[in-house]
Amino acid sequence: MSIISAHNKHDLTKKQSQVIETLAKAGRPLGAYTILDELRDDGFKAPLQVYRTLDQLISLGFVHRLESLNAYIVCQMETCGSTDNLNTSFIICDLCGLVEELPHTAVESAARILLDKLNFTPTKSTIEIRGLCHACQS
C-alpha cells in the first residue's frame, strides 16, 4: 500500500503526491533542494514549487519539517492527515540519522502544566530530541 493511500483523507494534487512519495521512498528526511533534484524530470523547475507543495502537505498534516535538520519527513503517526495534529515530537540520532516520530501526548501533558501556569496557548509545537539511538550506543 502506498503512503498516499494509507494517509488519503484528502485528495492530493499530482505535485503533492510526487513530493510525498519521494519522501516516503527516501525513508529519511530530505531537504527541499534534494526533493527538487529528485523531481526535476517530473515537472518541478524551481525551489518555490517544492516549498509551496511542502507547505501544503504540512498544512494537511502529511509532512513535518524537522527544524534542526532543515529537512522534511512523512508523518509517521496514525493521526496523520489531521489538521488538529499540531504537536509533534521526534528523536533524531546524530550518527545514523534515524528519525522517529513520538506520540506527543506525554510530552504535551508535561508542557501543558507549564503553559497553563504561564497562561500561554501554543498554536504549534515541535520538539526534537537529538542524541544516539540504541544501535549507535553499542
How would you explain this protein's 3D organization?
The chain has 138 residues and is of the alpha+beta class. It has one domain: Winged helix-like DNA-binding domain superfamily/Winged helix DNA-binding domain (Arc Repressor Mutant, subunit A). Helices cover 41% and strands 19% of the residues. It has a three-stranded mixed β-sheet, with no helix packed on it. Helix 2 packs across helix 4. The longest helix is centred in the middle third of the chain and has 14 residues. The radius of gyration is 16 Å and the shape is globular. The N terminus is likely disordered.
Kindly summarize this structure in a few lines:
The protein is α+β, with helices and mostly antiparallel strands and 138 residues long.
Number of domains: 1
What's the CATH C level?
A: Mainly Alpha
Q: Give the amount of beta strand, in percent.
A: 15-25%
Mean pLDDT: 85
Order of helices and strands: HHHHEEEEHEH
Give the biggest beta sheet: 3 strands, mixed
Please name the defining characteristics of this protein.
single chain; 138 residues; alpha+beta; Arc Repressor Mutant, subunit A; two-stranded antiparallel sheet; 41% helix; globular; disordered N terminus
